[in-house]
Amino acid sequence: MKKSIYTLLGLVLFMTSCQKTPVDYALVSGRIENGKGELKLMSEDRAFSKTLELREDGSFSDTIRTKFGVFFLTNKNNVTRLYLDKGNNIIINADAGDFNKTLVFSGEGSSPSNYLALKGEVWTDLMGDAESFYQQNETEYKERNKQIRKVLVKTLDSIPGIGEDFRQKEKRNLNYTYLSALGKYQDFHAHFAKKPDFKVSDGYLDELKGVDYEDVDDYNFSSSYRQLLESHYRKKSEKLMESDSLSWDIAYLKALADVPNETIRNGMLFSHAKNNITFTGELEAYYAIFKSASTDKDNNAVIAESYEQLRALSEGNPSPKFVNYENYEGGTTSLDDLKGKYVYIDVWATWCGPCKAEIPFLKEVEEEYRDKNIEFVSISVDQEKDYDKWKAMVEEEQLKGIQVIADNDWESKFVTDYLIKGIPKFILLDPEGNIVSSNAPRPSSPDLKKMFDEFL
C-alpha cells in the first residue's frame, strides 16, 4: 500500500513539474548590419526605455519584461515600430545603410510587427505631401482619410498569422486615427492654407460625439485613442483657463484630475507630469494637484523624485554648473567664468524647430541689453555626430553671445542636473551664480524684458 501511495505521489510531482510555467517576457534578437552607435528599444508611450547591446558583428539579443504593446527600435537615424507581447520571440534583421528596404521581422509573434512596418509605408504613400494633404477642403480631406482607413484595414487583413485580438484592436485604432485626423483638421488647415481664422463647418466633427472616453483596453493599445483623450481634456482645460484664470499646465492637470476611470486618469496624469513638471512656473501648485489626483504608487514615486530635484532649482538656490564647455570662438567656457554678471542661458539644438524660431527674438534682446550687466549663453545639446552642423549654424545665423556645446548632449551633467526634458529651455542666474528662474521666459515673450528690467 505504501509503495502505491509513493508511486502516486511521485507521478503527481512529475506531472506538476512538467507543467508549463507562464511566460511573462518577450525575446528580441537579430542583427543590424553596418549598425553603429546605440540600439534602443522604447515603448510608444515613452514609459519604458532600454539600450540593447549591439555587438561588434551587429548582433543583439535581450529579454524584455514590461507592459507590452507597440515599441520603437532606433539605431542612430533609423527607426521602426514593432509589436511585442509576452511569449514572443522576435528576430529583427536589417542593414543600417538601407534600413527600411532591408528590414525583416521573423520568429514567433512577428506578424503584427510586419504589419506595422507595411502600415508605415502605405500610410506615407497615401498621405503624400503634408502641406497639400492639409490644404484640401473639408470634403476632400474627410474622403481621403476614409480611403486611408479603408486601405489600411485591407492591409491588416492581408497579413497572415495575426491574432484576432490584435486585429480587432488595430481596426478600432485605425478608426480612432481617422477621428483624430478630423479633430486636427481645423488647426492644420488654418496653418498650411494660411487661413488663421478658419473654422470647420457645423457638423463636421459629429463623428467624434460617439467616442467612449473610458475604454481602458483602447487606452492601453491605441496611441490615436490617447490623442483623442488628450484633445478632449484640453478643451475642458481651456474652459478652466478662461473661468479661473489658470495657466495652461495647471488647468490641464486639473482637467485630468476629473477623468472618471482610475487607470486612464493615472496614465494621463503621469504622461503629462513626467516632462511638464520641469516646465511649470508653479511647481508647488502643480505637484499638489498631481499628488492628490494620482493613485499609482510607482508613478507617484517618479514624480516625487522629480519634484524634490526641482525644488533644489528654485529661486535663490545655487545653480548647477557646466565646466569647460567648448566655445565656438575657441577655448572653453565654464559657468564660474561669468560670475559678476547676470547670465541668461538658452539650451537648444540645431534640429529643434522651436529653438530656431526663437533666434530672431534672442538677437533682438541681446542687442537691446548688450550694454547691461548680463551675458547671453547658448548651450547646444547636439550630438557629437552633429558637431559640424552646430558650427555651421552658428556661422550662418551669425549667432551672438557665448556659443558653447555641451560635453555629452542630453546626458551632460548640467542638463541632467536641471532635469531638462525638452528644449528650448531658458534659465536666468544672478551675478553670484544663484538661480533667478529655472524656467525663464522665452525671448519671444514680453515677460522676458519685464524680468530683465526688474533686475537690470
From TrEMBL:
Keywords: Cytochrome c-type biogenesis, Disulfide bond, Redox-active center
Biological process according to GO: cytochrome complex assembly
Keyword NAD: no
Pfam name, any one: Redoxin
Entry keyword annotation includes Cell cycle: no
Protein's cellular compartments: Cell envelope
Chief location: other
InterPro entries in the cross-refs: Redoxin, Thioredoxin-like_sf, Thioredoxin_domain, Thioredoxin_ResA/DsbE_sf
Thioredoxin domain location: 313-456
Recorded GO MF terms: oxidoreductase activity
GO cellular component: cell envelope
The protein's name: TlpA family protein disulfide reductase
Organism: Sinomicrobium weinanense
Biological classification of the source: Bacteria, Pseudomonadati, Bacteroidota, Flavobacteriia, Flavobacteriales
